[in-house]
Write a structure and sequence with these properties.
Layout (H helix, E strand, L loop, with lengths): L6 E2 L5 E6 L13 H20 L3 E6 L13 E12 L2 E11 L6 E13 L12 E2 L3 H26 L1
Length: about 160
């Protein structure tokens, strides 16, 4: 197989917005956590597909901690980008902000790291192009993603041994 051309990290950037409506909310008037998780998975999946230019599936979602709620009438702003590529898998970081539409004030709702695997026509994992990092922030994201991946693999191995 010929070497693949690296894809810039910026090529995978996704920005989604969602106005939180009553159908997205619980009895407290805030978006269901599962709904925010679904939006997060969707944004990350689009970023992974933009990088791989192949179908992708979610392999894992790291810890997701809600720091502030998204209320009915507010905007959920999701930003996703591939942080690192590991042969057939990619780590995608997603930042979720809540925005007050009348003032523009934004607050961190949550952030997450998701791992996606690219699939070939046979529905088996397929290699993806390397990630081209062009800024110090992208290099930092790539280093941190590698550290998280090592921890995930170590945990998986520890659970397998039990």
């Amino acid at each position: 197989m010929a070497p693949m051309t690296p894809v810039p990290a910026t090529a995978s950037h996704v920005e989604m917005t969602q106005l939180v409506m009553p159908s997205h909310a619980n009895s407290h008037g805030t978006a269901f956590g599962g709904t925010v998780m679904a939006w997060t998975d969707l944004a990350a999946g689009m970023a992974a597909m933009r990088h791989a230019r192949l179908p992708v599936v979610t392999a894992s979602i790291d810890q997701l901690v809600f720091r502030s709620p998204v209320r009915i009438g507010q905007i959920a702003l999701l930003r996703a980008q591939v942080n690192a590529v590991f042969a057939t898998s990619m780590e995608v970081g997603v930042l979720v902000l809540t925005e007050e539409p009348l003032t523009g004030e934004q607050r961190l709702c949550c952030e997450a790291y998701l791992t996606f695997v690219a699939l070939g026509p046979d529905q088996h994992p397929r290699p993806v192009a390397p990630l081209l990092v062009e800024s110090e922030l992208e290099r930092q994201r790539q280093r941190e993603a590698s550290t998280r991946r090592a921890a995930r693999l170590e945990l998986r191995e520890a659970l397998r041994r039990k």
